[in-house]
Amino acid sequence: MKKDINGKTKIIGVIGKNIENSLSPLFHNQIILKHSLNFCYLPFQVAEINLGKAIQGIKALNIRGVNITFPYKEKAIKFLDEVEESARRIGAVNTIVNNNGILIGYNTDVIGFKKSLQEDGKFAIKGEKAVILGAGGAARAVVYALLEEGIEEICIFNRTLEKAKKIKQNLSSFFPKSCISVFPLEKEDLKDKIEKAHLLINTTSLGMAPQIDNTPLPDEKLFHSNLLVYDLIYHPAKTLFLRQAERAGANITNGLSMLVYQGIESFYLWTGFKPEGKEVLEMIKRIA
């Protein structure tokens, strides 16, 4: 088990805002220790005004790569040299690889979300109906993943309707048979669409620590027992949103397994090594 940092240690990490509660450093460094890899994963707290400088600093400091997290997944793209095709379609990146001074953006959230939903949530996406709360970078990856797997209908609700419209406009061109509707966060539309849905996903930061008393869906009566309710937040493990859904009899899942699965894909892009997902997930559950 390699523990020493030396002159050959390669740096990887995460860039974001308010990342004090991120589990990424914990689980990446646990993988590094277990498999004696000469890497070190660090958190980089970056203000938006410094985002471009921070990303260019990846080159200057010869950092091997970073994850990009909330709220920079869309904003980071303009600072990159290249963007992988699916990430370009999505319009958001969560991973940057420094390939000999060329910064390449990827989106591993797609595969992370799919695996967490299908393998851990035991949810078959094809032919189902989904309601998505939020229209940021994470929502883009979720919508893309659902469309790839043949979801029947997606309804996006967001306070800023223009952001939701932009997702529909961007992704409908790649999935011409898709059915995407967008709505403002109004109760009557929410009630109608959630009643008909099989999957309800929170992609917003509402409920994330330290603001754990927030929820994107204050009216508990909107939940029902035929839903799988998915919150991309993993800290706290059971948000107010998930507690509401559980009281209504819905199946619930948080974003921990998505974090792990997308992280494994990112880790592979940086290191060429891919640990086994279930093993990492169990390890994180034990120590987090």
Describe the structure.
The chain has 288 residues and is of the alpha/beta class. It has 2 domains: 10-107 and 259-287, Leucine Dehydrogenase, chain A, domain 1 (Rossmann fold, 3-Layer(aba) Sandwich); 110-254, 3-Layer(aba) Sandwich (Rossmann fold), CATH 3.40.50.720. It is built from 10 helices and 12 strands. The chain has helices at residues 24-34, 51-60, 85-90, 109-120, 137-148, 161-172, 187-196, 240-247, 256-271, 277-287, and strands spanning 10-16, 39-45, 65-68, 82-83, 95-99, 102-106, 129-133, 153-157, 180-183, 199-202, 228-231, 251-253. Helix 6 links the parallel strand 8 (153-157) and strand 9 (180-183). Helix 4 (109-120) packs across helix 9. The mean pLDDT is 95.
Strand content: 15-25%
Major sheet: 6 strands, mixed
Which sequence of SSEs, written as H and E, runs from N to C? EHEHEEHEEHEHEHEHEEHEHH
**Multimeric organization:** single chain
The total count of strands amounts to 12
Average pLDDT over all residues: 95
| Tally of discrete structural domains | 2
Strand order of the largest sheet: 2-1-3-5-6-4
Note the total helix count. Answer: 10
Which of globular, elongated, flat, extended, rod-shaped describes the shape? Answer: globular
The CATH superfamily of the largest domain appears as NAD(P)-binding Rossmann-like Domain
Taking Cα atoms only, what radius of gyration do you get, to the nearest Å? 19 Å
The low-confidence runs, each spanning 5 or more residues with pLDDT under 50, are none
Assign a percent range to the helix content: 25-40%
* CATH topology term of the largest domain: Rossmann fold
Supply the CATH class of the largest domain.
Alpha Beta
Structural class: alpha/beta
